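Much of our argument rests on the idea that a fold can be written as discrete symbols. Part of our work consisted of pairing the sequence of a single chain with a tokenised description of its backbone. No coordinates are needed to read the tokens, only the vocabulary itself. The record that follows shows the chain in one-letter code together with its fold in token form.
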Amino acid sequence: MRVLGIDPGLTRCGLGVVDGGRSRSVTCVDVGVARTPADGQLPDRLAAVADAVERWMDTHHPEVVAIERVFSQHNVRSVMGTAQVSGVVALAAARRGLPVAFHTPSEVKAAVSGSGRADKKQVTTMVTRVLGLDAAPKPADAADALALAVCHLWRAPMASRLAEAEARAAELARAHKARLKSAQRGTGRGGGGR
């Protein structure tokens, strides 16, 4: 499976493409950052990020897009920019019929480093090691994008099995309720004692 990981940001949007199979082995296909000028107009900046993401999608043909879920920060302006970029990326994926998965920063950290509280340096170190890279991806946004892609590759099979189990449990519950309802109707009609 090929995953495009996106670390959304208005000034720097991390992009990372990773291939993975059934085992936990993963390979880095490409990594980079889309940059926009901090003093640019918001619509122009969003368009620039969208153009970069679409070029990556056209070049690498991912099967799924993994985006970091926006989380609460003290800087509301930063959160707004991150959320807007996430929306632009999700729209670009939807237009291509690509599934989109959102992962929280702690999910990504836990998947890659084993700790949901790992710092950026630890995540970068583990991404470099897991992907067998000669050098750590820079800036941190690029490493985070690769971490998102790796996280999705490693978590997707588990999430899929969990969704299948939940669907099966729901189906069994519906069947059980139907049998109970049928049994209650049967005893209510005429069945009393002998």
